[in-house]
Write a structure and sequence with these properties.
This protein has 303 residues and is an alpha/beta fold. The chain contains 13 helices and 15 strands. The chain has a domain of 210 residues: Rossmann fold.
Length: 303
């Protein structure tokens, strides 16, 4: 009984931290946070409560779509990691607006956004000073979230960092089904540059932003890869010992992929990661997609 009481006292004495939207990346953060923080993890799914508790978090059942439920999060923690995506429709992010309405002044918040806010950059290498030009509703909602958070941070005297994230990959986040179906990719002349980050590195980047980011600063969470989308599918296919996808011109491919996939194939950009390394001091565990796939194949269970 005395041991249990001492453990409870140690837990209560830790600084409090709130993860909003504790999905795959949030779960990867928990082992890096739970020994130093009392972590509250928000989920909308009651059947995930036990999983979050077992991972070392205090689960909170709340849905940011409902202001009354968002209010449960008020003053839970002075540090917030906001990983929840916007709702699936509209041009504003109501979830982020509901969250900022209940957060106290002088909160430290890291928001995980998307590189889609830039729209198509024609394959140019860009840094975080590039103006946003969202081309689809998903990205428009993300820009609304970023602007909402900036206004809130200035008004409340809070500290905000925005982490813009490209395509996330990991052992459980590879386009294996797409490759097995033989869904075509673009021919080289029509193809677009894409950007990538391993989910484990992303978890570490968000924590580094929490600890070392400059106020109201944007960071690219991206590795050192320089590759087009078709090349990404090819290296994943090779790693999984699957056939490489066929290649088609854009005019033919648009009839064989979903509108959502086609929208990704319409934007080409390369993200610079100098700030990630010089300001946040991050050393990537998986510097390129090829490096990450080597580790994935090495540690994957036999098929």
């Amino acid at each position: 009984m005395q041991i249990q009481n001492k453990q409870a006292i140690r837990k209560i004495g830790k600084p409090r931290l709130l993860i909003v939207g504790c999905g795959d990346v949030g779960m990867r953060m928990l082992p890096l946070l739970r020994d130093r923080y009392r972590v509250f993890a928000v989920t909308t799914q009651a059947d995930r409560m036990a999983e979050l508790r077992a991972a070392g978090a205090t689960p909170i059942l709340a849905n940011l779509d409902h202001p009354a439920e968002a209010a449960r999060l008020a003053r839970l923690a002075p540090t917030v990691l906001h990983l929840a995506p916007p709702q699936a429709e509209g041009q504003i992010d109501r979830r982020t607006r509901h969250l900022t309405a209940i957060l106290p002044d002088h909160t430290l918040l890291v928001y995980v956004s998307t590189s889609g806010v830039y729209g198509d950059c024609g394959g140019a290498l860009i840094d975080e000073t590039r103006a946003v030009r969202p081309h689809n509703a998903r990205a428009i909602r993300r820009v609304d979230a970023e602007r909402t958070l900036r206004r809130w941070a200035r008004r409340s005297g809070s500290r905000l960092a925005i982490v813009r994230v490209p395509g996330i990959y990991a052992q459980n986040r590879l386009p294996e089904e797409r490759l097995r179906k033989g869904t075509p990719a673009l021919v080289e002349s029509d193809d677009v540059f894409t950007n990538h980050i391993h989910a484990d590195d992303l978890a570490r980047i968000v924590i580094a932003a929490m600890r070392r980011a400059q106020p109201l600063r944007v960071y690219h969470a991206v590795d050192d890869s320089d590759m087009k989308m078709g090349a990404y599918f090819d290296v994943v296919a090779d790693a999984l010992q699957l056939p490489r996808p066929p290649r088609l011109p854009r005019t033919d491919l648009q009839h064989q992929v979903t509108p959502a996939m086609l929208s990704f194939m319409a934007e080409s950009r390369r993200l610079a990661n100098r700030r990630l390394k010089t300001e946040l001091g991050v050393r990537l565990h998986y510097s390129t997609v090829q490096h990450g796939l080597q580790k994935i194949v090495k540690t994957a269970p036999s098929r």
